[in-house]
Amino acid sequence: WLVDPRPDLPTIVNMVEKSFELSEASNTPVIMELRIRACHVFGSFETKDNVPSPKSTREKFDAPAPFDYSRLAHPPVTFLQEVDKVDRRLPAARDFIVREGLNELMGPETGDIGIIVQGGLYNGLNQRLADAGLSDIYGDLKVSTMVLNVTHPLVPEQITEFARGKKAVLVVEEGSPEYIELAVGKMLRQADIQTKLHGKDMLPAAGEYTAPVVGRGLAKFLTEYGYDPGGLSQWLDAVDQNRKALDEAKSAPLPPRPPTFCTGCPERPVFSAMKLLREEMGPVHVSVDIGCHALATFAPFSQGHSIVGYGMSLAANSAVSPTQETRPFTVMGDGGFWHNGLLTGVAGSVFNEDDSVLVVMNNGYS
């Protein structure tokens, strides 16, 4: 199942705990998605005592579990597991989601319009509703809103009850295909609920749902159903005017400001030296890793042909090395080196007699 919590510290902390409980209640792995903006929130939350595991390296099992072939990820029992997932585990997950109130209903219980939003997009939506005079910074919404802190599985009864009696519902869903919108549409039709459903017809099919993007889609939805966007329209006009003024400015356009190395970071001169060497030697394939040195892919260093995983840069480079006339170059940090760079990278390169260059940034991470 997939959890996408509302960007609010107490909500995120609670959803971590509930994710483990949801997994146990339905015998299913749970993935929690934390969006970039969720990682930027600040605040406080009430802590709880840790709960020790009933079985661990201290509290060991007396004997291994008895052999059970049906538990293996192996045909033909995988077909039985698929049936079990639909017949038992999925209903158990939905019951838990409803019982624990994991999805949040905000704003008035009734109204002629409603919004269904992925939990991770809630803050941006609320800010634009506040611009329209339909909320405030504390989330006192004037529009009925369902916040999906769990985006999979959906609970059909929650969706149909939310949409019942409304003229229209807007699904704010980042990404393509529009899985949630398609699922909601099916649920409404099967329940013979004729509420008008909007989503990608008013919001872009792909790309990041930035503040102006959400604002334009929301303004279109509100106008369609007789609501005055008010301050939201003014805010969007100001954004457009600012963009137009920048485009019409006679001076050179402002350069982008991607993230870069901290002032004084010792990695900066390393990549500067690599860039200078490139002028002498010509282009060289450079494989970088997870870590600060991935910032070298941005200007002004602009080098790094691949980032495939933590400690995987040399392994990736080993696949490229036999196809290159010039020896390729690999960079990884000491954390990635000890994580799996030594095993998948160095050991593999030695075994395959790979002739490439590895630089390990010893940042004292591990």
Oligomer: single chain
Mean pLDDT value: 92
Radius of gyration: 26 Å
Order of helices and strands: EHEHEEHEEHEHEHHHEHEHE
What is the topology?
Elements: E1 2-3, H1 9-26, E2 31-32, H2 77-99, E3 104-106, E4 113-118, H3 122-131, E5 144-148, E6 150-152, H4 156-163, E7 168-172, H5 179-190, E8 196-198, H6 211-224, H7 231-248, H8 267-281, E9 286-287, H9 313-320, E10 329-333, H10 334-351, E11 357-361
Parallel strand pairs: 1-2, 4-5, 4-7, 7-8, 9-10, 10-11
Antiparallel strand pairs: 1-6, 3-5
Explain this structure to me?
The chain is an alpha/beta fold. The protein has helices at 9-26, 77-99, 122-131, 156-163, 179-190, 211-224, 231-248, 267-281, 313-320, 334-351; strands at 2-3, 31-32, 104-106, 113-118, 144-148, 150-152, 168-172, 196-198, 286-287, 329-333, 357-361. The strands form 3 sheets. A 5-stranded mixed sheet has the order 3-5-4-7-8, with helices on both faces. Strands 2-1-6 form a 3-stranded mixed sheet, with helices on one face. A 3-stranded parallel sheet has the order 9-10-11. The mean pLDDT is 92.
